[in-house]
Structures are given as structure tokens and as C-alpha cells.
Task: inverse folding
């Protein structure tokens, strides 16, 4: 890619795989989650080599320095050549993945309604008390 070509912030962040979709990148820019030198940027702002961005995505926080311009999404090993990740180590640790009970369809142990088996054992226990 030639240096005279301009790349939008949202397209750049999408192409280096900070965001999964370009619309997510644009929404993050509009929502003030992308900052250039401490001030929020709009999605259409052109990216220059040497720019330092602070990006807050759903997964984690990024502090990146632009080393090359790219406008098409490429594989991760290629994408990492276009930026330097200066993110502090504590921000690199994404919050631990907690599966939602609604997504997995499985109930976490000892939380929520009892299963049919649990209910039967409770009823059996309660009936045992009544007989005494």
C-alpha cells in the first residue's frame, strides 16, 4: 500500500483485527472508545504512521502505535506487522470468560432452580420427615 493512500480509523482498526466488524469499529469511534493522543476521534479520520491510539473494545483495552497502513483485513500473523502493541500487561488480561447459563443451556451447579432429580430427592426427604 502506498503512503499517499489514506485509511480511515475504523477501517484500520478492523483490518488489524482489533474489532471483528467494521461497523463495530465505527460504533466504537462514535462512542468515544477510540482516542488519538488522549482525544476522541471520528471514524473517518485518516490514520498516519506514528499515531498512537487507545482503544477500548468489549474484550480488552489496547494501546497501539501505527507502523504501517493497511486497508484490507488480513490474517493475524500479517496484521501484527502493521502496529506495535504498547498495552500495559494488566490491561492485556481480558476478563475471565464466564459462560452464560442461557447461552450454554446448562445450569451451573447449586445455582437457580433445582433439577428434576434434585426435586425428587427434596420431595423424598420432605416426605420422610412427615411420616415421623
Result:
Amino acid at each position: 500500500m502506498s503512503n499517499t493512500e489514506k485509511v480511515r480509523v475504523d477501517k484500520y482498526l478492523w483490518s488489524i483485527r482489533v474489532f471483528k466488524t467494521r461497523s463495530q469499529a465505527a460504533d466504537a469511534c462514535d462512542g468515544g472508545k477510540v482516542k488519538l493522543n488522549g482525544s476522541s476521534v471520528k471514524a473517518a479520520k485518516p490514520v498516519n504512521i506514528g499515531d498512537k491510539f487507545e482503544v477500548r473494545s468489549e474484550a480488552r483495552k489496547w494501546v497501539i502505535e501505527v507502523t504501517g497502513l493497511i486497508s484490507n483485513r488480513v490474517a493475524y500473523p500479517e496484521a501484527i506487522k502493521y502496529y506495535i502493541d504498547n498495552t500495559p500487561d494488566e490491561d492485556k488480561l481480558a476478563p475471565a470468560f464466564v459462560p452464560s447459563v442461557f447461552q450454554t443451556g446448562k445450569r451451573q451447579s447449586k445455582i437457580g432452580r433445582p433439577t428434576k432429580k434434585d426435586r425428587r430427592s427434596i420431595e423424598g426427604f420432605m416426605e420422610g420427615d412427615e411420616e415421623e
Summary: Helices lie at 9-15, 22-30, 76-79, 89-92, 101-104, 116-131. The chain has a mean pLDDT of 81.
